[in-house]
């Protein structure tokens, strides 16, 4: 009897602490295994595209800022990307070493890149008349790239959504959030059931009409449609950058910067290859060195990189952007073992280096040659058996007063990122983070 009462007490305690825990953690019910599979991919392609590319200005944001609303909203009538080739885009992603691809099916301007039955403002009413989202989903399947869909919450075009412009604060009294949310559900049902995305990338959750309750409602709705579809954290009201109690969604989305190291919460940084999300003629492009170091630093922080490109109005990816992506692919062919399926750390990333690890190996991504030898704190409980550059020469090392001292050559073997391998005597994946 006493045992039974104790057991019941324990159960009550357990379930109430579970309840409390539920309120303190993000609103997310994805399996750990699915998220681990996602985080193993490390590198994906973001694509921002739509009729706005005819003006070369920023998608969504340039409506009423540089491009008049009437001009912007009529661009679709001239959108005819005759050179669009879904296979070519997906092959560009694959050859860059990217493992997934995320397309803006609907951005803040409300235009839909698929033949939705719920809005006439879609690709079938352009001269092009082809399902861009469907073509990409099919090509991704063919080339074994995970297909993902960006879908904005805020929609400055739709009259049911209360705000019709960036900077608007007074809600339209004729708008109706309940109807708008139903419209979202209808479209999300189309997207999930027709294209089976691996992940949904929400956005535009910061405006006042969108509430935390809306986010949880959509999250539950999607979970019923597909228990495994991954959902980013821009459905709730918390910050994008980190997961918190206010978060609805499965992973954090720092934007235009590498996220901070986090060994528990999954995250993905979205960063543009040029400066604009959508195509801009002659836009400044990041160097190969910047791209490689961004990817290495992201992996070093235990996150993914979603690198954005903006294809041109005729449907092609600019050759200089494609070339940069091919260079990334060649680098990854050689150094991919230090990026894919690794964990970040144990050394904290900084401007000099980023560390990743897999099994017994710790990879040191060196961005800069120190004046003398490279000095790292010894890894507690583990011993270095061998040190060498990945695909390269051995590196002499010694241990001196809890410091690992590595003698580097005059010139590092790769000026963008020289990857050193430390082969340890034990698995290094769960070693606590080490401050240098
Ligand atoms: C958002 C989009 O607005 C942007 O166009 C792009 O799609 C990016 C991936 O995500 O970026 C933001 C998010 C929030 C703000 C501005 C841009 N904000 O709060 O001002």
Structure, described:
There is one protein chain. This protein is α/β, with parallel strands linked by helices and 436 residues long. The chain folds into two domains: 26-338, Glycosidases (TIM Barrel), CATH 3.20.20; 343-424, Golgi alpha-mannosidase II (Immunoglobulin-like, Sandwich). Helix content is 28%, strand content 17%. It is built from nine helices and 15 strands. The chain has helices at residues 2-24, 32-41, 69-74, 86-95, 132-142, 177-195, 212-225, 288-300, 319-335, and strands at 43-47, 100-106, 146-152, 199-203, 230-231, 268-272, 304-309, 343-344, 353-358, 361-366, 374-377, 384-389, 397-400, 403-406, 418-424. It is globular, with a radius of gyration of 24 Å. The protein starts with a helix and ends in a 12-residue tail after the last strand. 4-nitrophenyl 6-deoxy-alpha-L-galactopyranoside binds at residues 59-60, 203, 206, 255, 270, 277. The site of 4-nitrophenyl 6-deoxy-alpha-L-galactopyranoside has 7 residues, from loops.
Key structural traits:
15 strands; TIM Barrel; 2 domains; 436 residues; alpha/beta; binds 4-nitrophenyl 6-deoxy-alpha-L-galactopyranoside; 5-stranded antiparallel beta sheet; Immunoglobulin-like; 9 helices; 7-stranded parallel beta sheet
Low-confidence segments, given as residue ranges, are 8-22
Bound molecules: 4-nitrophenyl 6-deoxy-alpha-L-galactopyranoside
Counting helices, strands and paired strands, the structural category is alpha/beta
Mean pLDDT: 95
- What is the fourth-level CATH superfamily of the largest domain? Glycosidases
- How many domains make up the 3D coordinates? 2
Spatial extent as radius of gyration: 24 Å
The number of helices is: 9
What is the 3D form? globular
- The tally of beta strands, per DSSP, is 15
Which topology of the largest domain does CATH recognise?
A: TIM Barrel
Our measurement of the CA-to-CA distance between the termini, rounded to an integer number of angstroms, reads: 56 Å
Largest sheet: number of strands, sense, barrel closure:
7 strands, parallel
Percentage of residues in strands: 15-25%
**Mind telling me which CATH architecture of the largest domain this is?**
Alpha-Beta Barrel
Q: What is the percent of helical residues?
A: 25-40%
CATH class category of the largest domain: Alpha Beta
Taking strands numbered 1, 2, ... along the chain, how are they ordered across the largest sheet?
5-4-3-2-1-7-6
What order do the helices and strands follow?
A: HHEHHEHEHEHEEHEHEEEEEEEE
């Amino acid at each position: 009897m006493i045992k039974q009462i104790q057991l019941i007490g324990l159960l009550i305690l357990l379930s109430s602490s579970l309840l409390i825990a539920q309120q303190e953690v993000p609103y997310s019910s994805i399996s750990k295994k699915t998220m681990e599979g996602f985080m193993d991919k490390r590198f994906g392609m973001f694509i921002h595209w739509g009729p706005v590319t005819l003006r070369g200005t920023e998608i969504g944001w340039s409506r009423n800022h540089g491009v008049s609303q009437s001009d912007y909203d009529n661009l679709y009538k001239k959108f005819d990307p005759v050179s669009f080739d879904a296979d070519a885009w997906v092959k560009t992603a694959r050859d860059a070493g990217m493992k997934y691809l995320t397309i803006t099916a609907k951005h803040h301007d409300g235009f839909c890149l698929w033949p939705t039955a719920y809005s006439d403002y879609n690709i079938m009413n352009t001269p092009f008349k082809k399902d861009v989202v469907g073509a990409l989903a099919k090509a991704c399947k063919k080339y074994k790239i995970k297909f993902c869909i960006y879908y904005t919450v805020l929609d400055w075009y739709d009259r049911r959504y209360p705000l019709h412009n960036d900077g608007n604060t007074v809600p339209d009294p004729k708008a109706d959030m309940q109807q708008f949310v139903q419209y979202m559900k209808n479209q999300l049902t189309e997207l999930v059931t027709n294209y089976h995305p691996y992940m949904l990338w929400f956005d535009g959750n910061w405006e006042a009409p969108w509430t935390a309750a809306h986010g949880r409602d959509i999250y539950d709705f999607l979970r019923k449609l597909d228990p495994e579809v991954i959902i980013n954290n821009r459905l709730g009201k918390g910050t994008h950058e980190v997961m918190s109690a206010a978060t609805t969604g499965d992973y954090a989305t720092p934007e235009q910067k590498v996220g901070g190291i986090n060994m528990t919460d999954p995250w993905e940084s979205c960063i543009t290859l040029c400066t604009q999300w959508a195509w801009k003629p002659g836009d400044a492009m990041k160097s190969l060195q910047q791209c490689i170091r961004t990817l290495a630093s992201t992996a070093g922080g235990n996150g993914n990189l979603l690198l954005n490109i903006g294809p041109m109005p005729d449907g092609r990816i600019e050759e200089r952007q494609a070339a940069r992506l091919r260079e990334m692919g060649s680098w990854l062919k050689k150094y991919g073992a230090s990026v894919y399926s690794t964990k970040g750390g144990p050394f904290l990333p900084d401007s000099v280096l980023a560390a990743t690890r897999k099994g017994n190996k710790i990879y040191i991504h060196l961005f800069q040659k120190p004046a003398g030898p490279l000095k790292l704190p010894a890894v507690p409980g583990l011993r270095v058996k061998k040190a060498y550059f990945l695909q390269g020469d051995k590196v002499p090392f010694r241990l001196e007063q809890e410091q690992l001292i590595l003698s580097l050559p005059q010139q590092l073997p790769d000026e963008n990122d020289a990857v050193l391998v430390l082969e340890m005597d034990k698995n290094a994946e769960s070693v606590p983070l080490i401050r240098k």
